[in-house]
Amino acid sequence: TSMTYCQYFFHDMIAPHFVVFGVSLTKDAEAAMGIWSFVQSLAAFLVVVPAGVLSEKVGRKLLLGVAFLITGCSFIPFALSGTKFEVLMLMSAIGGVGMGINQGVQMALFADVLPSAETAARDINLMVSSMTISQTVVSYAGGTLLSWLSSRHGCDIAQAYSIIWIGTAAVTCLGAPLLLCVGKTGSGGRQQ
Q1: What is the per-residue pLDDT across 132-159, written as a single tens digit (0 to 9) for each?
Q2: pTM of this prediction?
Q3: DSSP string computed for 171-182
Q4: How far apart are CA 129 and CA 136, in angstroms?
Q5: Cα separations (Å) of 64 from 7, 26, 137, 182?
Q6: Which of 27, 7, 30, 14 is nearest to 85 (CA)?
Q7: What are phi and psi of 100, to 5 degrees?
């Protein structure tokens, strides 16, 4: 998944400068990755249930659109050379909020628009499979693109990472308007 790509990013771009609040902690990319992942996961955990409740009041598509934009914008500082680790951790928490909203609300929206209750398990499994396939492709594509940009197009490693992070932010933010394509209800769904 993208975690592998992030680990390379932390190894190449963050670990050599791993200073938190002015204190050098380690030059270990795995430690930086662990802190980043923990902050993001904690933020996601804290908003999952409130996001579900809020989606019942404001609508799932609106909340998911906001989640895509929050998550996408949280990637932008990763594209900027010299961003401090503290800022990346703050953006990790903000991105975690977006991901936390996305986790439960996306499944609820999907359940709302299912064509029938009889095929719900199959339809949900197809959705999860499509996400797994895309994550697998992105893991390979990110590393390949990084290598291609740096070895064949003369980008230094920081420029190559910036291009990939900006692309990631743009694609994630594009999820918001694509929600307009999602239907209103399935046969047993609730109105959005």
Answers
A1: 777 777 777 877 888 888 888 888 888 8
A2: 0.80
A3: HHHHHHHHGGGS
A4: 11
A5: 27, 37, 23, 12
A6: 14
A7: -65, -40
